[in-house]
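Reminder to self: keep the SMILES exactly as supplied, no canonicalising. Ligand is zinc ion.
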Amino acid sequence: MLPEPVIKKFQLFNEFRELLHGFSTRQGGFSKAPFDELNLGLSTPDDPQVVKRNRQLFFKELKLPNNYLVFPQQTHSANVQIVNKPGIVSNCDALITNQKNLFLTVQTADCFPVFIFDPLKKVVALVHSGWRGTAQNIVGRTIKKMEKNFGCKAVDLLVAIGPGVQQTCYQVDEKTANYFQQRFLQPDGPGHFKLDVQSKIIAQLKECRVPESQIEWDSQCTHCAKEAYYSYRRDGLNSGRMMGIIGIVGA
Ligand SMILES: [Zn+2]
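Structure tokens returned for the bound complex:
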């Protein structure tokens, strides 16, 4: 019997039948420990053939109508790319498209995946926002690009933030902390702080004028929820990757 991948969905997107989205957990795949089970990251030391099988399983479970996928080569940058065709996009941490049947992906293990949908203009975006991307406001840059290139309005956007590492488990040094305002930091011993990246992303969305009622966030911690998620902070090189996907299905 094939394993059944456990996939998270966001309520905010439920009513839009044309929208396909999902965020994988580590549950329901072929990988062996320490990458068990649904490792979707080909950049990990896991067996690439097994990762490919996991990906096929995940895509099938999502009922992806075809394999028109876009993979960003994430570098913790603030680079945002508009894409029109499937393939790999180098040095990029946010993708935008208005093409139907083109599915954007992001891979994470602690960093936050941010899913954006404009139901009026039919535009989607998917952002990788770790502390570096968040310090550079990659979410704000993505929304600005959607406004400029597709006539989107931030007030119309629906935004879902997937699970990442929460403040209680995310100690940073002073150098990192200096990129963030006091209200996102908790002192944690000499020269150290606990950083709330997710709250900072929510604040950035509100600064762009996305209404709070149109923002959904998952407050589970990838570091704490060992059974459900991979965590780079927890497992280092032994960490697999989760994958987020969003796209508009069309005739
Ligand atoms: Zn935690």
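Points to follow up:
The chain is about 20% helix and 25% strand.
The first strand starts at residue 7 and ends at 8.
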